[in-house]
Amino acid sequence: MCLALGTAPRPLRWGRKDRAARASCIKDFVKRPEKFVIDKLRRENSSPKWEGATCPHCGEGVLGPLKDHGEKKGGRGHRCSRSLCNRRMTPRSFHRIFSKGTVQSFSTLADQAAILFCAVAGCPQTTTRLLAQRNHKAVESIYGSLHGAQWADVEADEVDLGKMEDPAAGPRTATPVIWEQRGGIVQRGAPESLVLFRLQPKKTKRRAPGPGPIRKAGWAPLSKKWLKNRNVIFHTDGARSYKLKEQGVVHDWVVHKKKKAKVKGKWMWLKPSHSQKRYHDVPDPMKAGAKKRIWVKTGTQIIDGVWRELRRFVGKTKAVGSAHLMQKARSFQWAHWNRGKDLWHETGAMLQEAWAKKRGW
Ligand SMILES: [Zn+2]
């Protein structure tokens, strides 16, 4: 699998021996109940483990364990603990390959897993279509999201972590407040792709609410480094500095504003919508010169969640630019990269690596 920002794909090479001993086969997915398929996917890390994570819809509740909530409520899923939200995340929510599908092109998780299995085993799409008895849409979307050079959803935003009076400022300085501001980029569904960077915001007056969004000059080199030519749908809030034209990047932004609309003959204020569905016609990486339409969910829910976790992790405001804060931000990034993995195991691996470097092995 190719992640736009993440790690290199693991090559699919099997020797004859491995082929015989492979743990899965197509029988594991065909006509199996949903519970069986989900358990299998979770065991093999092909399904995210949402339990204990902050709810990406409301950002306050904590997602509970995987439970069956009945057919009407989406089947097996994780329920948000906040009573006002109460939404359910299914194993397909925010998944990079599996989707809920529309009414016309609905397919069960087992069907989708079977198609994925065929794709990984190297079946051509026409064969998979016959084997799985699905139409081209269901097969194409899974092949498309699996094979390299596909379009990925990436979010970016900035966060203020603290402020203090500049020690060098005199009593008459107009803008004496310096800010600790971080920017972040993350690919949806791939926490290991999180990139954090420190920003150099403008100094402000004493009572300013914040240093404002990232500046164009600060964003341009980052955009070149992390987004250019990577085929990404790039989600931000309304900040102008992000609106750079870049090869291989389609920008999609949301405006967090209240809107007035006529509902049943009455004028009402509608809540700002933080997430909508929108489509983009983008160049198809699989067919030169062709375009394909992809539907995306707008909004910056994932990176907003990252900021909430970071704030909780950093705790009380620390001095701007302090070593303590730097260290906190770094270890947060490491924990986020390894989210859902066995942190104990990863710590051991990290220490081994550090020791090997020191000894010059
Ligand atoms: Zn919630």
Describe the structure.
The protein has 361 residues and is an alpha+beta fold. The chain has nine helices and twelve strands. The radius of gyration is 23 Å and the shape is globular. The N terminus is likely disordered. The chain binds zinc ion. Zinc ion binds next to loops.
Notable characteristics:
361 residues, alpha+beta, 5-stranded mixed beta sheet, 3-stranded antiparallel beta sheet, 29% helix, globular, binds zinc ion, ISXO2-like transposase domain-containing protein
Q: What proportion strand?
A: 15-25%
Q: Structural class, from secondary structure content?
A: alpha+beta
Taking the sheet with the most strands, its summary is: 5 strands, mixed
| Strand runs, count | 12
Quaternary assembly: single chain
Radius of gyration: 23 Å
Q: What helical percentage do the residues reach?
A: 25-40%
Q: Helical stretch count?
A: 9
How would you describe the shape? globular
What ligand species are in this complex?
zinc ion
Give the low-pLDDT segments. Answer: 1-12
Spatial arrangement of strands, main beta sheet: 6-5-4-7-8
- How far is the N terminus from the C terminus? 31 Å
Rounded mean pLDDT is: 79
**What is the string of SSEs from the N terminus onward?**
HHEEEHHHEEEHEEEEEEHHH
Protein name: ISXO2-like transposase domain-containing protein
